[in-house]
């Protein structure tokens, strides 16, 4: 009885703490910037494994600290002041704070000092290497094997060794010819333009010819007389860039170009070196993006050695990951592909024979971190448990057996020890703001570094729920998120706002902290029901889930969003005469589509950076999902929103950055012009000089505009 009394007293105390503790309200500044700064969950900065030790390191304010995996021992390795004394004595600029770093070896860290790169021995407290780089330098690629940096200035490529000796790889005056930079607008997993060979004897690099690509005018209005700053933009169906791969011999300075042949309009993706440096492998994808060949080329002659295998699909093929050779067997490699419906790992030999499928099932391999020390297992991230949870696994290459290393539901990322025996797991979930744990890669928890407190515990937030609905095929699960206002009363009627993206390569519903972002909770706090649904076409659900939108963007996605609307109506507390919608980029396209195709449902919309006419969008992404306009005129006509202006009934605001190089300003301007021609009223706002989204503190202004628009009209 006494124990029961204590429990009741404890519950009363807790209840009063919740009532009086949750009294703060998010401001718009909190919702947009604060959730990433002053009310961001506690975190550990700069966690890395120190090679050849059983310690991990992290930055504690002004010091680099090491801790044993079991957290029983710790020590300060070096401080910010220690490094600055050495830099100052060497006549170098001092650091303003302890920098982000990486371990090069047991005692040497590498970090940036402004634009320079420093390698520093933390044991002897001395500079080991100091690469002085111009502020004009971009696309830095440092090779540990030869201590040489590849970099670009303007459209040219150079290399510099540890002694500061510079060699020009290119000296091209024609600004249309670009060396050593990313190509294909960063599609197909391409993130850079240079690729060092394993021992650093060669440098593979992209040479991009954009002379045939249209100069698109971006207007800079910061000058007294506005100036045109053209960018290259290849719209769907028009001429594309032409790319070749060069091989630079570091010793003699000679270049051989790989003979990738005709047609010249093709995509050279997923560059990989053979371990013996004799060959380079390229996933060559045709312009139509439905036929990929994994080709091996001889770097001395540039000639094709063989095609290992091909992948074809009636819709599209999207190679995203270069081959990864087994560390102990140069005759075998791992290839990641979605060819059988989900993104999985396959083991091949260098003759192109598939040995086995390593991972299997209705889930996606999201990331490959590396191998265990014996090379028999590989560490990956995958959404095997549910489509919205992302765990770390250890997978046996020979058998495919999987060990789930991380144990908590949520979205996990891993830092893997050099020997592949341990990870630091950083994760969050809808109930855990941020956590760090050390596991061995057999799944044993070694220690818990941090489980952060809820930084929003004192704020009065709406309740968030994640669930699933059946698509109109009666089979497919669609994940949704709904946030209801604080002090929610189901007997009342609330306006609702649908936040939408809806396109490929994005997943909005995940088991992660503050799912939906601060703005959704801010608007719920103002009395809105906030709703988001990942329709078919979005990411991490398999090929069939995504490619159903092929050649008909804006069709199936709308059907699925209307399934969400039916669900809102079934709840009974949503005012179906007050439905709003907001999205950016593909979400801007979806917002405008919903406001026109479903004008009887959506009363207010705000579309940012919207694709209005897919003929004006770039080749690499646009043609993958829509084919060329010449091949699919009906599809382009059907989703051209200029043809739907007359269907607009509600209040719609378009917002665009005037310097947008992704969805060019022309999209929304054309929509405005069509509205004027057809006497349709529209609201419009531009952000001068901003690109595809409004970043930094200006984003607060953007979200104030968006919020006020719903307040005024919904």
What would your notes on this structure say?
The longest helix is centred in the first third of the chain and has 20 residues, at 2-21. The strands form 11 sheets. The chain has an 8-stranded mixed β-sheet with strand order 38-39-41-40-42-43-44-45, with helices on both faces. Strands 13, 14, 15, 20 and 21 form a 5-stranded antiparallel β-sheet that branches. It is globular. Mean pLDDT is 95; it is low at 1-20. 40% of the residues are buried. Strand 17 and strand 18 form a beta hairpin. The protein contains 11 helices and 45 strands. With 714 residues, it is of the alpha+beta class. The chain has 4 domains: 41-132, no CATH class; 134-320, 8 Propeller (Methanol Dehydrogenase, Chain A), CATH 2.140.10; 323-454, TolB, C-terminal domain (Neuraminidase, 6 Propeller), CATH 2.120.10.30; 464-713, Rossmann fold (3-Layer(aba) Sandwich).
Number of strands: 45
Number of helices: 11
CATH names the topology of the largest domain as Rossmann fold
How confident overall, as mean pLDDT? Answer: 95
Structure classification:
alpha+beta
CATH superfamily of the largest domain: Alpha/Beta hydrolase fold, catalytic domain
**How would a crystallographer describe the biggest sheet?**
8 strands, mixed
**Which residue ranges are poorly predicted, with pLDDT under 50 across at least 5 consecutive positions?**
1-20
**From the coordinates shown, what is the CATH architecture of the largest domain?**
3-Layer(aba) Sandwich
| Rg estimate, integer Å | 27 Å
Shape: globular
Structurally, how many domains make up the residues? 4
Q: Output the strand order for the largest sheet.
A: 38-39-41-40-42-43-44-45
Strand content: 35-45%
- Please write the CATH class name of the largest domain: Alpha Beta
* Distance separating the two termini: 54 Å
- Helix content, binned percent: 10-25%
């Amino acid at each position: 009885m006494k124990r029961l009394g204590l429990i009741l007293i404890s519950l009363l105390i807790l209840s009063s703490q919740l009532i009086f503790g949750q009294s703060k309200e998010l401001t718009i500044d909190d919702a947009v910037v604060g959730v990433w700064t002053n009310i961001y969950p506690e975190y550990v900065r700069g966690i890395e494994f120190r090679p050849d030790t059983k310690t991990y390191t992290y930055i504690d304010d002004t010091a680099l600290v090491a801790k044993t995996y079991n957290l029983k021992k710790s020590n300060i390795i070096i401080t910010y002041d220690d490094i600055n004394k050495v830099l100052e004595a060497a006549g170098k600029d001092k650091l303003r704070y302890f920098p982000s770093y990486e371990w090069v070896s047991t005692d040497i860290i590498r970090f940036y000092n402004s634009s320079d790169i420093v390698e520093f021995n933390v044991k002897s407290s001395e500079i080991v290497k100091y690469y002085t780089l111009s502020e004009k330098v971009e696309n830095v690629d440092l090779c540990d094997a030869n201590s040489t940096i590849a970099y670009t200035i303007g459209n040219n490529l150079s290399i510099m060794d540890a002694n500061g000796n510079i060699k020009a790889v290119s000296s091209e005056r024609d600004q249309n010819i670009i060396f050593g930079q990313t190509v294909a607008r960063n599609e197909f997993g391409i993130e850079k333009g240079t690729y060092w060979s394993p021992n650093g004897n060669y440098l593979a690099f992209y040479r991009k010819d954009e002379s045939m690509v249209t100069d698109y005018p971006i207007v800079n209005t910061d000058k007294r007389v506005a100036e045109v700053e053209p960018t290259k933009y290849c719209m769907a169906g028009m001429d594309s860039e032409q790319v070749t791969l060069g091989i630079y011999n570091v010793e003699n300075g000679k270049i051989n170009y790989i003979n990738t042949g005709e047609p010249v309009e093709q995509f050279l993706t997923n560059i990989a070196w053979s371990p013996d440096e004799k060959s380079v492998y390229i996933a060559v994808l045709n312009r139509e993006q439905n036929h990929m060949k994994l080709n091996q080329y001889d770097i001395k002659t540039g000639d094709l050695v063989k095609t290992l295998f091909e992948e074809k699909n009636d819709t599209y093929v999207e190679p995203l990951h270069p081959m990864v050779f087994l560390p102990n067997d140069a005759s075998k490699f791992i290839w990641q592909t979605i060819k059988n419906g989900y993104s999985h790992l396959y083991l091949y030999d260098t003759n192109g024979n598939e040995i086995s499928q390593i991972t299997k099932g209705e889930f996606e391999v999201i990331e490959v971190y590396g191998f265990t020390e014996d090379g028999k297992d590989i560490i990956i991230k995958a959404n095997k448990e549910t489509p919205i949870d992302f765990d770390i696994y250890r997978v046996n290459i020979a058998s495919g057996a999987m060990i789930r290393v991380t144990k908590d539901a949520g979205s996990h990322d891993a830092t893997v020890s050099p020997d592949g025996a341990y990870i630091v797991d950083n994760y969050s979930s809808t109930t855990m703001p941020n956590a760090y744990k050390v596991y061995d890669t057999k799944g044993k928890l070694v220690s818990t570094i941090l489980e952060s407190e809820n930084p929003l515990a004192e704020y009065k937030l709406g309740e968030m729920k994640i669930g699933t609905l059946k698509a109109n095929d009666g089979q497919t699960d669609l994940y949704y998120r709904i946030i209801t206002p604080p002090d929610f009363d189901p007997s009342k009627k609330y306006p609702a706002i649908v936040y939408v993206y809806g396109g490929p390569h994005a997943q909005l519903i995940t088991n992660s902290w503050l799912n939906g972002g601060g703005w959704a909770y801010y608007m719920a706090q103002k009395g809105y029901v906030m709703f988001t649904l990942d329709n078919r076409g979005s990411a991490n659900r398999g090929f069939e889930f995504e490619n159903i939108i092929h050649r008909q963007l804006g069709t199936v996605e709308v059907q699925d969003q209307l399934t969400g609307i039916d669900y809102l109506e079934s709840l009974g507390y949503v005012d179906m005469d007050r439905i709003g919608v907001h999205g950016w980029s593909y979400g801007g396209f979806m917002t405008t589509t919903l406001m026109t195709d479903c004008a009887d449902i959506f009363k207010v919309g705000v579309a940012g950076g919207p694709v209005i006419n897919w003929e004006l969008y770039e080749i690499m992404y646009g043609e993958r999902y829509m084919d060329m306009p010449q091949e699919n005129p009906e599809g382009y006509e059907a989703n051209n929103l200029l043809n739907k202006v007359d269907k607009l009934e509600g209040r719609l605001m378009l917002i665009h950055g005037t310097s947008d190089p992704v969805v060019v300003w022309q999209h929304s301007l054309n929509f405005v012009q069509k509205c004027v021609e057809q006497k349709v009223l529209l609201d419009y706002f531009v952000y001068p000089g901003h690109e595809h989204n409004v970043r930094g503190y200006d984003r607060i202004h953007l979200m104030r505009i968006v919020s006020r628009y719903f307040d005024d009209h919904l």
